[in-house]
Design goal:
Elements: H1 2-41, H2 46-83, E1 87-89, H3 92-98, E2 102-104, E3 106-107, E4 111-121, E5 126-130, E6 135-140, E7 147-148, E8 153-158, H4 160-192, H5 197-223, E9 232-236, E10 241-246, E11 253-254, E12 259-264, E13 269-275, H6 277-282, E14 288-293, E15 296-307, E16 316-322, E17 333-340, E18 347-350, E19 355-357, E20 360-366, E21 371-376, E22 378-383, E23 386-391, E24 398-400, H7 405-419
Pfam families: CzcB_C
InterPro entries: CzcB_C (IPR058649), MFP_Cation_Efflux (IPR051909), RND_pump_MFP (IPR006143)
Keywords: Signal, Transport
Length: about 425
């Protein structure tokens, strides 16, 4: 009995101890929870540090996530760049601001040939005034550099032949007048029945013959320079201009056809180039020549080409006039570049349009408002500031002409950034 009582007491005590321990543990848990809540409420406590660590953890995780997203975006950008290789994206405003000129692909080609030439007085603006009849030079009226008008005297020649010619002309005119009077008298006598009609016809024939002889003598006098009764002939200028050279001196003797003086108008000049006959046959009037002279470079238009009979080597001449502005003085040497053998079926672009990119010739073709696309081409001959395009273009494109090198620089810049 006592043993059972003890066991009951022992079990009760054990139960009390267990209950007491459970309560203590629960109390301790409640206190820890309160302390933790207080720590979170305190801004300066250790709880703030815990929040910072938590935020840093979230930030690190977000950064890692953002990095992955960026890498993914860059991958898509690389794919887009690769798909748009050779494209320089520019807006219309950027194109206008950079001064890039968009031009159509032209047609026609040819080869350039360099020519040598000089400035000469134009045809019709120069004259080599010669003596119309032989005689002695009595007086020289002008000197080199004298400006003269049409018909202005240059020199006076005295010629016995001219005097005889003038006398013969006067005699022929007198004979013609006498024959005319005889014919008129015979007409009056025929009406009176004194002179037969046969005599009237003969007098009419003599009158006509005398008049013809008088006209011939007068024409000879005019051809001789219209000498006066003393045989003095005045040599006059046939063109306006400046006297270049005087070939006679007072007291000297000249024969018919000898040069007295050269006269040329300095305001009327043209370009004369020496060229091979084959080239002259290919260059037609209207062709352009780029000329270089003492006053710089300028453009001229061909006005004619033909074989030069003065040349013994079979050379030809090409005559041209400037598009605008005066020429250098006559006698000035010049050089020119002419485009010959043009072909209408050959595509051409301005020389500035062809750029070298990675060792290849390219032109920048306008790409439907997106910008310009570098298009490889096979370039041919250069002529007249243009380059033939043998392959790579269809002829319907519009390409960048002036300032196309800016697109080349922009393309190189984009490739450098992509490689980096």
């Amino acid at each position: 009995m006592k043993t059972n009582t003890r066991r009951l007491i022992y079990v009760a005590a054990l139960l009390v101890a267990l209950v007491a321990g459970f309560g203590l543990a629960r109390l301790t848990s409640s206190q820890d929870a309160g302390a933790s809540h207080a720590a979170h409420s305190d801004d300066d406590g250790h709880g703030s540090h815990g929040d910072d660590q938590t935020q840093e953890s979230h930030a690190d995780h977000g950064a890692e996530g953002g990095h992955d997203e960026k890498d993914s975006h860059d991958d898509h950008g690389d794919e887009a760049t690769e798909s748009e290789e050779g494209l320089v994206a520019l807006t219309q405003q950027q194109i206008e601001a950079s001064g890039i000129q968009v031009v159509a692909v032209g047609r026609g080609g040819g080869s350039e040939t360099r020519l040598s030439g000089r400035v000469e007085p134009a045809i019709g603006a120069r004259a080599a005034v010669a003596a119309s009849i032989g005689g002695r030079v009595e007086r020289v009226i002008v000197a080199p550099g004298t400006r003269v008008r049409v018909g202005q005297p240059l020199a006076v020649i005295v010629s016995g032949e001219a005097a005889t010619m003038r006398a013969n002309a006067d005699a022929a005119r007198a004979e013609a007048e006498a024959a005319r009077l005889v014919y008129q008298r015979d007409q009056a006598l025929v009406t009176q029945g004194v002179v037969a009609k046969q005599e009237l016809e003969a007098s009419r024939a003599r009158s006509l013959s005398a008049e013809a002889a008088a006209r011939a003598a007068a024409a000879q006098v005019v051809a001789a320079g219209s000498p006066n009764a003393g045989g003095r002939v005045t040599i006059t200028s046939s063109v306006p201009g400046v006297v270049g050279a005087v070939q006679v001196t007072p007291g000297g003797f000249v024969a018919a056809g000898d040069i007295v003086a050269n006269v040329a108008d300095p305001a009327q000049t043209e370009l004369v180039f020496s060229a091979p006959p084959a080239l002259a046959a290919q260059v037609e009037p209207g062709a352009r020549i780029e000329v270089t002279g003492t006053n710089g470079s300028f453009s001229a238009i061909v006005i004619g080409s033909a074989a030069d009979v003065r040349e013994q080597g079979g050379m030809a001449i090409i005559r041209a006039r400037p598009e605008s502005g005066p020429l250098p003085p006559a006698g000035t040497p010049v050089s020119g570049v002419v485009v010959a053998a043009a072909k209408d079926d050959t595509l051409t672009v301005p020389a500035d349009a062809v750029q070298t990119v990675e060792g290849r010739s390219v032109v920048f073709v306008a790409d439907n408002g997106k910008g310009f696309r570098a298009t490889p081409v096979l370039a041919g001959r250069r002529a007249g500031g243009r380059i033939e395009i043998l392959n790579g273009l269809s002829g319907d494109e519009r390409v960048a002409g002036t300032n196309a090198f800016l697109l080349k620089a922009e393309l190189a810049k984009g490739e450098a950034e992509h490689g980096h």
